[in-house]
């Protein structure tokens, strides 16, 4: 043997050894288990971040996209009164400035040429200036008028909100305002064939709504459309002399998981009615997802391609 080639005894540290218990099962080293747990935690964290980013992107798109939907009301007292009349129903404008979305809205309304424009509150952005909103409202046109109720963001600047209904630096209400702001009151519109009440409750979210006072002003000889910023009034309205309820506020839940979370957490009661059509007894309601989500145009003419909403009269016919 070459004396330079010495054989040294090996030790356990010379090899990546795995301890084999007497029962023959291979045990995983603790540092490997720890590393796997760290990898799982990192993966869960990254998936959560990705999910949140997708939700944020979806919410951003939804609040900046404008979708126009056409519906037809057939039959019932509302359908008869509004036969041949086009009604544009907007909700939750949240105007902060006159930007691309606001200009696009005006273009759509000019193209659609509605006979009546109805708005369900939250017209101004939260604690925003009212000048851009007043500019936009001044450009709305409809032969039979523009009518609106107030929402919670409209009262977010209590002093500023006065400009919507009151004369500047005065407690006196404006005369012949355009649009007409309906606050726990109603307006009787004489249309092509019949008349119809446009009733409106003040902001339900802020506890300002008074349905008794509102319906006490309507002409019971004619059908009534009730405007309300929030659909939370639907339970009470469905038991009253109301033929159709129009509201907004919910933004369709804003994020798609809201409709599932509301079953677990005590969210806003209005979120029971996220979007679309609902019916209780003989009273239907439509909840608009908001200007960031949709402008609902009730096209009340005979057109078989349009979805229909049957609005029964008070006798159920």
What does this protein structure show overall?
- With 317 residues, this protein is α/β, with parallel strands linked by helices.
- Helices cover 25% and strands 21% of the residues.
- It contains 8 helices and 13 strands.
- Strands 5-4-3-2-12-1-13 form a 7-stranded mixed β-sheet.
- Helix 5 links the parallel strand 4 and strand 5.
- It is globular.
Count of the separate structural domains: 2
Number of helices: 8
> What is the annotated CATH architecture of the largest domain?
4-Layer Sandwich
The shape is: globular
Helix content: 10-25%
Radius of gyration: 30 Å
- Low-confidence stretches are 12-18, 253-258, 298-317
Question: The biggest beta sheet, please?
Answer: 7 strands, mixed
Count of extended strands: 13
Order of helices and strands: HEHEHEHEHEEEHEHEHEEEE
Tags for this entry?
317 residues; alpha/beta; Purple Acid Phosphatase, chain A, domain 2; 2 domains; 7-stranded mixed β-sheet; 25% helix
Short description:
Helix content is 25%, strand content 21%. The protein has 317 residues and is an alpha/beta fold. The longest helix is centred in the N-terminal third of the chain and has 35 residues, at 30-64.
List the helices and strands and how they pair.
Layout: H1 30-64, E1 68-74, H2 76-81, E2 85-90, H3 100-112, E3 116-120, H4 131-137, E4 146-149, H5 162-165, E5 180-181, E6 185-190, E7 195-200, H6 211-215, E8 224-228, H7 234-237, E9 244-247, H8 258-261, E10 276-280, E11 283-287, E12 295-300, E13 307-310
Parallel strand pairs: 1-12, 1-13, 2-3, 3-4, 4-5, 7-8, 8-9, 9-11
Antiparallel strand pairs: 2-12, 6-7, 10-11
């Amino acid at each position: 043997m070459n004396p330079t080639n010495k054989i040294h005894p090996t030790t356990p540290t010379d090899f990546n050894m795995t301890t084999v218990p007497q029962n023959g099962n291979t045990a995983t080293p603790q540092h490997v288990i720890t590393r796997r747990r760290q990898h799982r935690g990192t993966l869960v964290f990254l998936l959560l971040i990705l999910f949140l980013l997708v939700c944020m992107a979806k919410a951003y798109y939804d609040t900046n996209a404008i979708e126009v939907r056409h519906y037809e009301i057939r039959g019932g007292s509302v359908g008869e009164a509004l036969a041949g009349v086009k009604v544009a129903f907007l909700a939750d404008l949240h105007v902060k400035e006159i930007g691309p979305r606001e200009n696009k809205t005006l273009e759509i309304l000019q193209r659609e040429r509605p006979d009546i424009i109805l708005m369900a509150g939250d017209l101004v952005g939260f604690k925003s200036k009212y000048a851009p909103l007043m500019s936009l409202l001044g450009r709305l046109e409809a032969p039979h008028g523009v009518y609106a109720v107030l929402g919670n963001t409209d009262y977010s600047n209590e002093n500023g909100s006065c400009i919507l209904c009151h004369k500047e630096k005065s407690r006196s209400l404006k005369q012949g305002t355009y649009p007409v702001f309906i606050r726990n009151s109603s307006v009787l519109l004489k249309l092509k064939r019949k008349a119809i009440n446009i009733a409106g409750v003040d902001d339900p979210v802020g506890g300002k709504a008074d349905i008794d006072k509102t319906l006490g002003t309507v002409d019971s000889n004619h059908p009534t459309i009730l405007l309300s910023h929030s659909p939370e009034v639907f339970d009470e309205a469905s038991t009253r002399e109301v033929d159709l309820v129009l509201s907004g506020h919910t933004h369709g839940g804003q994020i798609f998981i809201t409709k599932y979370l509301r079953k677990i957490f005590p969210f806003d009661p209005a979120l029971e009615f996220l979007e679309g059509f609902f019916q209780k007894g003989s009273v239907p309601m439509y909840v608009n997802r908001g200007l960031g989500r949709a402008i609902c145009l009730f096209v009340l003419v005979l057109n078989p391609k349009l979805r229909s909403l049957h609005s029964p009269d008070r006798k159920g016919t």
